């Protein structure tokens, strides 16, 4: 029983179905509203490992033409000279083709929802919420607000940051505010991006340009994630489109030539949270319900998809041995597997953000020295690239190529 059918919850339902596991998916939203143009203006960097998962659950053909490969990541400290280029060389590890692909969240959602509709192993309950959850020795039961009672052996919470199932289970959360907002939109630009993602670090917050596919009529496009201190966010929200573009252009230093808006502007508050526990009696929490981080490294969704791969692998291994999917030992294996990965990614993301947030000339000089070292040391660069691709550590089978 999966509560929350967002990007992570619905991927879990499909991956489980392909492994022969049936599920109920309950989501309070209307899928038509979620996939309406302009509702979720974000684009996600899908790591190579996450891409493998989509291929392995049968979405490869549908998604292949919609993603823009990231061939290199350029990291700079403001617009100062000296940058690190993460560009895989031939023979650079298992997935040398690219550092991932950029997808509009809307395209991912449309593909997942279409596949879910066609999958008989998924019973999808939309515009429905759980009003009562019972977990006991013999199974779980969820009462929906429309009166229906659903029964199963395991409850999975994939309800995102505000997960009521996690809170009801009493799982403590470590959390803090970054006091920043991410302004997200897409830009048309005169020069081609050459499949390069830019992470430009300013003391006020990182500024990212992520390559998107050209439009059908050949216009070049990139997604923008501009992080702004909360105290300045109101001012940025109030800017006219022309003034907003002027501010954006000033931070881009002309790297992509002249720019125009290609999508509505949206903004998201940035918070860090990490649940101390991810399992309970017949309960597992996954995706943003378990962990939420700064979008600087584009890892939130990828981490949630690794939760999916690990959970499905643990459950199908256990069921092959005749164990119940809610078995406590299986859930303990899932938690052990995921906790180190989640902590490492979250710690690294949080540290990068803090490192670049220190203002002043000396910290900036030290950062550029460090960046120069990474630029010159292929082994260190490879380590960072493997992290970005999601191929370090013990990778679930569903996320392998
Ligand atoms: C600006 C920004 C940029 C980002 N860029 C990237 C990136 O490049 N790469 C990346 O990997 N990640 C990125 N992320 C993170 C990524 O968007 C999230 O990690 C991801 O969306 C989490 O998916 P989820 O399914 O766990 O949660 P959500 O997407 O929040 O989905 C939760 C679902 O549960 C449903 N729900 C909620 N409450 C209930 C309830 N009570 N009952 C029933 N249903 C409920 C909701 O309707 C929703 O469908 C970014 C985040 C931000 C803010």
Name the CATH homologous superfamily. Answer: FAD/NAD(P)-binding domain
CATH fold label: FAD/NAD(P)-binding domain
Distinct helical segment count:
12
Give me the CATH architecture, please. Answer: 3-Layer(bba) Sandwich
Strand content: 25-35%
Total count of domains: 1
Helix content: 25-40%
Low-confidence stretches: none
Query: Which secondary-structure class do the elements indicate?
Result: alpha+beta
Instruction: Tell me about the largest β-sheet.
Output: 9 strands, mixed
Ends apart, CA distance between termini: 28 Å
Backbone CA Rg: 21 Å
**Average predicted local confidence, pLDDT:** 88
Shape: globular
Bound molecules: flavin-adenine dinucleotide
Q: What is the count of β-strands?
A: 21
CATH class: Alpha Beta
Describe what you observe in this structure.
With 401 residues, the protein is α+β, with helices and mostly antiparallel strands. The chain has a single domain (2-175, 271-399), classed as FAD/NAD(P)-binding domain, CATH 3.50.50.60. The chain is built from twelve helices and 21 strands. It has helices at residues 7-18, 31-34, 48-56, 60-63, 105-118, 164-169, 230-238, 241-252, 300-320, 328-357, 361-376, 378-389, and strands at 2-3, 23-27, 43-46, 68-69, 72-77, 83-86, 101-104, 122-126, 130-136, 139-144, 149-152, 155-157, 173-189, 196-202, 205-212, 220-229, 259-261, 266-275, 279-280, 283-285, 291-292. Strands 5, 6, 13, 14, 15, 16, 17, 18 and 21 form a nine-stranded mixed beta sheet that branches. A six-stranded mixed beta sheet has the order 8-2-1-12-20-19. It has a three-stranded antiparallel beta sheet with strand order 3-7-4. Strand 10 (139-144) and strand 11 (149-152) form a beta hairpin. The longest helix has 30 residues, at 328-357. 43% of the residues are buried. The mean pLDDT is 88. It binds flavin-adenine dinucleotide (FAD). The site of flavin-adenine dinucleotide has 32 residues, from helix 1, strand 2, strand 3, strand 13 and helix 9.
